[in-house]
Design a protein that fits this description.
Layout: H1 10-36, H2 71-89
Helix pairs in contact: 1-2
The structure holds zinc ion.
Length: 90
């Protein structure tokens, strides 16, 4: 089994810690901004056209219970991005 050991100076170590802290801060900011991009389900004055998953639901029972406004799809992409970003920060 081969093993490689590398050493760094205290200054290099401190710089590295600083870079990691800056990266984590950036990623946390990105996560916060992504969080703000979440979309609510669409609600129309004529509830016939509202998304079934909207707060007041849809008056047309024939459309089922699934999201039809695109919010779920949009928000699931945001969830994936946030999960990936959090993997890096841990
Ligand atoms: Zn929807």
């Amino acid at each position: 089994m081969s093993r490689v050991e590398t050493y760094m100076s205290q200054n290099q170590y401190d710089d590295l810690q600083e870079e990691i802290a800056a990266r984590d801060k950036l990623i946390n900011n990105v996560v916060d901004m992504l969080d703000e991009l979440r979309l609510p389900h669409s609600t129309c004055d004529d509830c016939w056209y509202s998304c079934p998953k909207s707060e007041d639901g849809c008056c047309n029972d024939d459309v089922g219970t699934e999201c039809n406004c695109g919010a779920d799809e949009h928000n699931s992409i945001i969830d994936k991005l946030i999960n990936q970003a959090r993997e890096v920060v841990k």
